[in-house]
Amino acid sequence: MRHSSPALSSSTAARVVAALVVAGASVVAAGPAAARDTGRVETPVASGSPVTEVTETAVRVKVPLPASAGPHPEACDWLSYLRFRHKDGPAAAARADRILVAQPGVLEGAGAFDSVARNTIAQAAKSGRYIEFWALDRRSNCLEDNTGVLAGVAAKDPHLAVDYYYRQKEIGGKRFGGFLGNDKVTWLQNQGLAQTVRDQYDLMARELPDQAARKRKMLCGGHSLGGILTAFFAEWDFDGNPATTADAGYNQCSGYFALDTRIRKGVPGLEAQVPTGMVPLMEFGAGAVRLGLESGVVPRTLSAPAVINPETMQLLGIAGLAASVAPDGLSDLATYVPEGFNQSMTYRLLFSKDYPTFLKGTPTVKDFRFSNAAALGGLLDDNSQPLAFMQASVGFWDGGKIVDKGFPAPNDLEEIGLGGLKQLVGPDKKAIPDEPNGPLFTWRNYDRVGAADDPVHRSKDGKPFTAAGKEVTDIAELARSLSEHPLDFTEHYFPTRIVTDIAFADAEGVADGAVHDGGIAANPTINLEAGDGLVSAAPLPGDVIAPGYQHIDVLTASARQNDGRPEPISLNLAAFALR
C-alpha cells in the first residue's frame, strides 16, 4: 500500500481530517439529539461512483430489540440500510414508482449492493420512472467499527486505517476496541431467522406505514442467502393471527427478486448458500445446536481461524481502500499490517502456488511485489480466490510470469474425478504469479482483457486462463464499494443462528411464524443468476442468466460490459420492477 498519490505529510492534518470523518460517522451511527428523539437518522453519503445520477444516504431507524435478546450494545437497537435513489426523483420514498428492498447474503453487508442498486435505478430512469433501492444491513452489523476505513478514505491514506485497527492509534480521540471474540457476542445466539424477518418487516412498516402502499410499491428480494430469507419473510405472519393477512410478508411486496439464489425456504440446489458445514453439532439436531450456542461450544458467529473471520473482513475493506486510492501503487498490505496468525495463514492459504509451497511456507506473499489493485484482485478474483461464494470477475494478473495455482485444489478437477468440487471452488482455473523477488505484478482490469496489448496468459494445458467474455466487474468499482460506505460491503459478525434456524426450520419453535404457505407463489418472481454462480437448481422459464458472471458479479458488474451491451442483471431487474 505504498502508493503513488500523496498521503498527508502532517500527522496533525491527518488527525484533523480523521476527526471530521469520525464526527460524520457518529452522526450516521446515532444522530443528533433532535434526530434521535424522532427515532430516525438519514445522512448523505459521498460517493466516487461513475453513476452520478444516483444519490445515496445511510438511514438508521430505532427499533429496540425485545428483552429476550439479552444484554446488547445500545447501537444495536437501531436498524440500518443504504437508500439509493435517482437525483431527479422524489425526495419522499412514498412517491417513488417502486422500492426494491434487498437482504444480503452470508458475510455480506449493505455496501455490497452499491453497483447493482445504482445501475438498476439508472436503467429505470431511462424510461422516465424513478425507483429506489434499499440495501439492508442486518442488526449484527451494529458491532462493526468503520472509523479507520472511512478516515483512510477521507485522507486518501490506507495507513490511517491500519494504524487504527492494528497499531492502537486513535482517530479523533477514538481507539479501536478490538475484534470481538465468541464471549463478547453472547446476544447473537438469539439473532436468528425470526428476528431477521421481523427486523425487515418492522423497518418496512416504519419507513412506509401505509400497508397498501407497501403492497403496491415494494419488491422484496436479496442475494444468495437473502433469497432464502425472503422466502421465509413471504410466508411469515407478523401479528400472531394467521386469520388476518394484511400483516403477512407476501402482502408487504408486489414481487420478489433473486440475485444468484432462489426464493425458496428449502436448500436443494442452494446448499452452497447455507454453510452448515461450518457449524459444529449439526448432525445432532436443533436442540443440541441451541445448547451449543448457549454454552459457546458452537461459535455464535460464522468464523474460522483464517479467511473467514472479522479480522479478514476488515482486511478486505483496507485492501479495497488502498486499491481505490492508488491502484498502481506498491502494496504493503502484507508488511505494514503487524504480523499475526490470521493474516499469515490467510495469505498462505490464498497465495500458495501448490501444496509444497503451502507446507514449506515459502515463498511467502511478502516475497512478491504487487500493485494495490493486484493485491485486491488476488484476494477476490475468480482466477485466484478459492471459495466460489467470494469470487468476482475483475480481470487478471499482469506484469510477469503467471502459472497454474494448484492449491488448495488443482485445476484439472474433472480429469482426476473431482469435478464435484467446482461447486466449492468455482469453474475457473486458478492462476498465480511465479517470480518471487521479481517484477511488480499489476492488474489488467476487466475491460482490458483481450486488448491488443494483452499477453494472454495460458494454463499448462495451453488454453488461456480467461477471456473478455468472462470478465464483467471493474476492479476500481469493487474497491470503492468495499471501502467508502458507512454500512460496509462485508458482515464481520454473521449470526450462526440464522444458518441453523434455516437448516432446522421444521423443528418446533424455529420457524413457527411461517404459516402462509402460499406466500411465495402469491407474487411474481424474477431469478437473476450468475452463469458460473452458486445456483445448481435447473433454470426456470423466464430466468435471466448472465454468462461469465460469478456469485458476487450479480452485485458488482459494471454498467458497461465488454460486449458493448448494458449490464443484464440491472437491465432486467429494472424492467421487472416497472412492469
- Report the strand count: 14
The CATH topology annotation of the largest domain reads as Rossmann fold
Q: What is the percent of helical residues? A: 25-40%
CATH superfamily of the largest domain: Alpha/Beta hydrolase fold, catalytic domain
Biggest beta-sheet profile: 9 strands, mixed
Keyword list:
579 residues; alpha/beta; Rossmann fold; 2 domains; 9-stranded mixed β-sheet; 3-stranded mixed β-sheet; 19 helices; 31% helix; disordered N terminus
Describe the structure.
By secondary structure, this protein is α/β, with parallel strands linked by helices. It has two domains: 39-138 and 191-279 and 494-578, Alpha/Beta hydrolase fold, catalytic domain (Rossmann fold, 3-Layer(aba) Sandwich), CATH 3.40.50; 310-483, no CATH class. The chain is built from 19 helices and 14 strands. It has helices at 11-29, 33-38, 114-125, 147-155, 158-166, 193-207, 211-217, 225-235, 286-295, 310-325, 333-336, 341-351, 355-360, 372-380, 422-425, 475-483, 496-503, 553-556, 568-578, and strands spanning 40-44, 54-62, 78-86, 98-103, 131-137, 218-223, 255-259, 369-370, 395-398, 402-404, 431-433, 440-445, 525-530, 544-546. The strands form three sheets. The chain has a nine-stranded mixed β-sheet, with helices on both faces.
In short:
With 579 residues, the chain is of the alpha/beta class.
Give the topology, please:
Layout lengths: L10 H19 L3 H6 L1 E5 L9 E9 L15 E9 L11 E6 L10 H12 L5 E7 L9 H9 L2 H9 L26 H15 L3 H7 E6 L1 H11 L19 E5 L26 H10 L14 H16 L7 H4 L4 H11 L3 H6 L8 E2 L1 H9 L14 E4 L3 E3 L17 H4 L5 E3 L6 E6 L29 H9 L12 H8 L21 E6 L13 E3 L6 H4 L11 H11 L1
Helix pairs in contact: 1-4, 3-19, 4-5, 6-8, 9-17, 10-14, 10-16
